[in-house]
Request: fold
Amino acid sequence: MNPQHWMTMANRSQLSRRTMLQLSSCGFGALALSALAPQYALASPTSGPLTPKSTHFPAKAKQVIFLFMHGGPSQVDTFDYKPQLTKDHGKPLPFNKPRVFSSQTGNLLKSPWEFRQYGQSGAWVSDLFPHVAQHVDDMCIINGMHGSNSRHGAALLELHTGSDTFVRPSMGAWITYGLGTENHNLPGFITICPTLTHGGATSWGSSFLPADFQGTAIGNAGISSDKAKIPFIENADHLDLSLQRQELDFAQMLNRRNLTEAGPDSVLEARINSYELAYRLQTAAPELQEINDESEATQKAYGLDQPETKNFGRQCLMARRFIEQGVRFVQCTHSYKWDQHGGLRADHAKNAKEVDQPIAALLADLKARGLLEETLVLWGGEFGRTPVAQGDDGRDHNPQGYTMWLAGGGVKPGIRYGATDEYGYFAVENKVHLHDLHATMLHLLGLDHLKLTYRVAGRDFRLTDVHGHVVTDIIA
Reply:
């Protein structure tokens, strides 16, 4: 409609209904758009650094759940059956011991627990994990893991960041940097009740990567999981969202003006993005963090009705809920309990009881919901433990050979890969270094570990540094 015709029709003293609708149709569209805009803003894909990104090649997994057993579970008491260790109990180790972390160790110490075979795969699992053992046909048990450091802090950093000597981005940060997130209203990387020791926040930090990719910590190891919430998202003043939006827009205007005047500033850019995410989290997170909509049967399966299992059970249940909503990387931490230089019989039994049922429930729940195929589940600690004794009832740190297992996410199910020697001390067959594990995780997510790089200080960095090989034998 040309402007002159518009003016002629608008100046008439009376308008027909048809003319009125014709003139105001754009206005109706604007009204509808204004009503939908807030909902769209909360649900639309982000256009910032967390925008979903294309993979280097077709991915087998979309997200990761890492079940971290802080302290170092003993492989020879859990998933690495060593009948020769039982046979030679009390005898000296027939080869030289490596230099390890703590005090002098003694003779060979058999496992206090019996091992049994489970599933069609016939995998050997100790009596410490009767519930997890029911899922061995969905698991890939890596018995030939090894790392570079026998101290908790350095080993924990190597597991989480790929480096035991320098501050580097965590694997969750690298994965979020490489893939973005599928939910605009939640962080891409969440760590539940993380440890504050042995590196602390470095284990979920982003280092030189933009701060947008660091993990969002929900609580910490000193807080029970039922009290751990995403921080700083409550509308403390109970303001109407539209008014709060106006306040945020004003603050963001000042931040962006400062950014324009000062030039590129990754910290300020991350703060701007975090304010926007916090605003959206107010609508998405509170309901997600409440589990009242879960059935009684589900809560019972995760062990929420038992004092021993309810803490880690809630972590596992929250991990499933976050993954279900598109969070890219979720870590659950059982901290700091697995460091048995003494009291192995009592404490390993207590630790396993706290996590066994929840982990089994998580695997079953993911599988029942069709999520296990696209979710890579990783279990393990920063190292294993020695097959020789410390005192009468303890084991020292052992990064030379230990066990981690994976499930779902494109790994071959029901297999054991690699092996330690006949006593469980050194990885000797199909050895998998932590760099290899990282490279394989990225591969399953559709990322080439050689191409996922970030340039800083004149060189390209990557999670695997200058190391790492994809373990193709465990990929389905």
Q: What stands out?
A: The longest helix spans residues 17-43. The chain has two domains: 3-43, 63-231+292-474. Residues 3-43 form one domain.
